[in-house]
Amino acid sequence: MIVNAFERYSDDMTIAQITELIQNAIDSVADHGGGAVRVQAKPGEYVVNGLRLRSNITFEVCEGITLKSSGDENTFVQRPGPFEFKAAHTPICAFIHTEGCHDVTICGEGAIDGNYRLFIPEEQEDPTHLSFFKYPRPMLCYFEDCRNVRIEGITLKNTPFWTVHLVGCRDTTVSGVTIDNDMAMPNTDGIDIDRCSNTLIENCHISGGDDGVCLKCTEETERYGNCVNVHVRNCEIHSTSAAIKFGSSSFADFENCLFEDLTIRKTNRALGLQLRDGGSVRNIVFKNISLATKDAGPRWWGAGEPIYITLIPRTDSGDVSKGMIENLVFENVSGDVENGIIVYAQHPEQVRNIAMRNVRLTIHHDVTKPLAFDMRPCPEYKRDHLVDCGIYLKTNIETNGTSVMCQNVTTSIVR
């Protein structure tokens, strides 16, 4: 079954009427067993309110069409709080919301636009780090407790908050997608993988002001367990934060992940493990990665680190004593960067079996500035100022021993 949602579209329709056309088409196709809902009309922007996808739906935004969010949160599906932390009693919402569904696809050669400028002041004091009205803001696409989700070929852009948030989902594929957000807009993560299993991200171009691909285990989603079996390949990522990140929400474990054949550019931090809440990371491989980092300044987390491995408490009362970082491989990683590698843990026994093979980094360092590793989030704002170094190991972590094993690793500092 294939339905064009805009078959009865006319130029004099209101936002609510346009939204009703699309939502009615989705509901009708779902009620008849599923099929494709196309948004096909003359090229242009079409402003709509919040949408809700259902099982067995392929939602296709055709070439030349941009679905632009109205920004009216009252029309978005609201998920009650808490959000990220059990103590944070704030609801969240998304322009496109999908929950408890299976076999759902978003695709097409068109675009979905989050209309982020509605959520920031027109006058900005710092054009490199935009201010905003509130936290959190609407996500662009939210999937919770879904199976067999596919996002293919489409452009997702101008989100006011996280672009794609996957929560407790199984068997998800994101392929050939362009994510294009303002590099100065905070919290515009590309893809957040929150306690999911079997996630494939491939052939994507991701650009934004926050983490490109971020693996999370938020506290309030504990019913979904660990975050496991993530594969990211053949992607290009630009980020004013971290291109690839584990954490900082790390209330459970991350296991069995592969990141390969990646190009990372215009990035404040390239490959980051930012464990703050007691969870562990195990069996992770990074290979065939070309990267370039540039310190974006103190308003952004990060300081130009190419590889950043940290396990420390978020707060003074935090307990990360059961957390582990073990069985990591960094192989064939090269690039021009503005900082060295850091491995930093509360206790040395928490870091085990990290292998670095064929890692070649050229560190471009302004001699008028000290090298600094950014430890946030932590009890106090902290950038550790250090002497020049290519690899910095904290808390008696061993190199070429049981903790960090280096083979053909070269770091050179250029002033």
Provide a descriptive summary of the structure in words.
The protein is built from one helix and 31 strands. The N and C termini lie far apart (63 Å). It has one helix at 15-31, and strands spanning 2-4, 35-39, 44-48, 51-52, 57-61, 65-69, 77-79, 92-99, 102-107, 111-113, 139-144, 147-152, 155-157, 164-167, 170-175, 178-180, 191-194, 197-202, 205-208, 213-217, 227-250, 254-275, 281-293, 307-311, 325-337, 341-345, 351-364, 371-374, 383-386, 391-394, 404-414. With 415 residues, the chain is mostly beta strands. The strands form two sheets. It has a 29-stranded mixed β-sheet that branches. The chain has a two-stranded antiparallel sheet with strand order 28-29. Helix content is 4%, strand content 51%.
Key attributes of the depicted protein:
mainly beta; 1 helix; two-stranded antiparallel sheet; 415 residues; 31 strands; 29-stranded mixed sheet; 4% helix
Give average pLDDT, whole number.
93
Give unreliable regions as ranges.
none
Q: Report the helical percentage.
A: under 10%
Radius of gyration, in Å, reads 22 Å
Proportion of residues in β-strands: over 45%
Shape: globular
Write down how many β-strands occur, each being a DSSP E stretch of 2 or more residues. Answer: 31
Broad structural category: mainly beta
Distance between the termini: 63 Å
Q: Quickly count the helices.
A: 1
Specify the biggest β-sheet: 29 strands, mixed
